[in-house]
Write a structure and sequence with these properties.
100 residues
Length: 100
């Protein structure tokens, strides 16, 4: 008769383990679409990378964030509509301008 209470306790614990709730999922902020347009800034390719050039790039493209990409650097592939990505070479000459 002692097995019955032990079996019911084991079954209760097993059911309790199955009924746990998953932690709530955090909401991911949605980035506004279409904030960056690289076309007006394409004429700055060939210019030297500098703070002043960066400010002009942001003004021309409407981007909120500027990401400088040095030569031989790895960058994330996540796309952000409000970000301008600008690559430059060893001489700090801008060679790539794109949104994302």
């Amino acid at each position: 008769m002692k097995l019955l209470p032990l079996a019911s306790i084991t079954a209760s614990l097993a059911l309790a383990a199955c009924s746990t709730q998953a932690p709530p999922v955090a909401e991911v902020p949605v980035m506004p679409e279409g904030n960056c347009n690289a076309d007006p800034a394409r004429g700055l390719a060939g210019e030297k990378a500098s703070a002043a050039t960066g400010a002009e790039l942001l003004r021309l493209t409407g981007a909120h964030t500027l990401r400088w990409v040095p030569p031989r650097s790895a960058v994330t592939m996540d796309y952000r509509a409000d970000r301008l990505t600008v690559g430059y070479d060893d001489d700090y000459t801008i060679n790539r301008i794109s949104c994302g």
